[in-house]
Design goal:
Elements lengths: L16 E6 L5 H17 L3 E4 L6 H9 L2 E4 L10 E4 L6 H9 L3 E4 L3 H15 L3 E5 L5 H7 L6 E4 L16 E5 L5 H14 L13 H14 L4 E5 L5 H13 L4 E4 L15 E6 L5 H13 L6 E4 L11 H10 L1
Parallel strand pairs: 1-11, 1-12, 2-3, 2-4, 4-5, 6-7, 6-8, 9-10, 9-11
């Protein structure tokens, strides 16, 4: 015997609300990196090569490709003597040497906050520390940071990984982290590391970048009582993926990541009263506005912004590009 449960109850507009995270989307490092490629194309002309995705967003990459950027995985795909931009995630010293060997004109768009972590790795290694690098294997940022001192770096991907680590009581240990991780999980990993290795040294400041922290705080605020949280961002964007996890941990009944409005499943809205929307740090805001438009077409009211922080930081363009722009002026 089958039981007809009926169709899901559709809520009228008076019962619905849309909450929009503020801050969301582009951070200072992403904005700098994208503008770097745009300015390089205007100044030098196409093609301009970019090692790896300049930022982890497929729409941004596609737009830059349409303007003449060519994205490559490794430098051996770049013609000798050509212009190449290094992505916001940073590169190891090995990559810089390869570029010099191929006589490439390099523009380093590494986020300054990632560069800070590189400098900390260099200093800790020089002082004889083993660096416990908290991050995800294979992520470009982790590869770049570990590449500063590969023989002195141990990757720690998860809090449970701490159980398998073994160092003498007098070992000099310090921790660093990928800048785009979950703040809560990173600090849990640090807590476990410090409990097992009391001599553990901290970096001069928290490595998790301000934008990652701000977006996670914002999604906790708008996600705590939400029936649905939609996170706009690409699947290879670590900070976007973390926002989904943070929303669920904060109490959201459901949370999904989409690259754009076309990936929303209308069934997600069945019986949903509160929809919260945010985006990762590499997402242009027009993609968020398209999601809000999708919701409006289905009877949801205009979004109410929920501000949890104000962001005013900006970064100057890479020195190589700034020099050439000044010379051209």
């Amino acid at each position: 015997m089958s039981i007809d449960l009926g169709t899901p109850r559709l809520l009228d507009e008076s019962e619905r609300q849309v909450l929009l995270a503020d801050p969301r989307g582009y951070c200072a490092g992403v904005d700098r990196a994208v503008v770097t490629v745009e300015q390089a194309l205007d100044l030098y002309g196409a093609p301009v090569y970019v090692r790896k995705q300049i930022v982890h967003n497929k729409h941004v990459v596609s737009n830059l490709e349409s303007r003449g950027a060519i994205f490559v995985e490794e430098l051996d795909e770049v013609p000798a003597g050509a212009t190449v931009v290094f992505s916001a995630h940073g590169v190891s010293p090995v990559v810089h040497r390869q570029a010099a060997e191929r006589n490439l004109k390099t523009i380093d768009a590494t986020c300054p906050l990632v560069t800070k972590v590189h400098r900390e790795a260099i200093r800790f290694a020089r002082e004889g520390y083993t660096i416990l690098l908290i991050g995800h294997a294979g992520h470009e940022e982790v590869e770049g940071t570990a590449g500063e001192a590969p023989e002195r770096t141990v990757l720690v991907e998860h809090p449970d990984d701490v159980d398998g680590l073994d160092f003498p009581a007098d070992a000099k240990l310090a921790w660093l982290s990928q800048t785009t991780l979950s703040v809560d999980e990173t600090m849990e990993t640090v807590r476990r590391l410090r409990a097992k290795f009391p001599q553990l040294e901290d970096p001069p400041s928290d490595d998790i970048c301000y934008a990652t922290q701000n977006r996670q705080v914002a999604v906790k605020e708008i996600g705590a009582a939400a029936d649905l949280v939609i996170v706009v961002g690409s699947g290879n964007s670590s900070n976007s993926v973390r926002l989904v996890e943070v929303a669920l941990e904060a109490g959201a009944k459901a949370s999904y990541r989409v690259d754009d409005a076309s990936e929303i499943d209308e069934a997600w809205l069945d019986g949903v009263q509160t929809v919260s929307v945010t985006s990762g740090a590499s997402v242009p805001d027009h993609l968020v506005q398209e999601v809000l438009g999708y919701l409006a077409e289905r009877g949801y009211p205009d979004a109410r912004a929920v501000q949890t922080a104000e962001e005013t930081l900006s970064f100057s363009l890479p020195k190589e590009l700034h020099r050439d722009l000044k010379a051209r002026a």
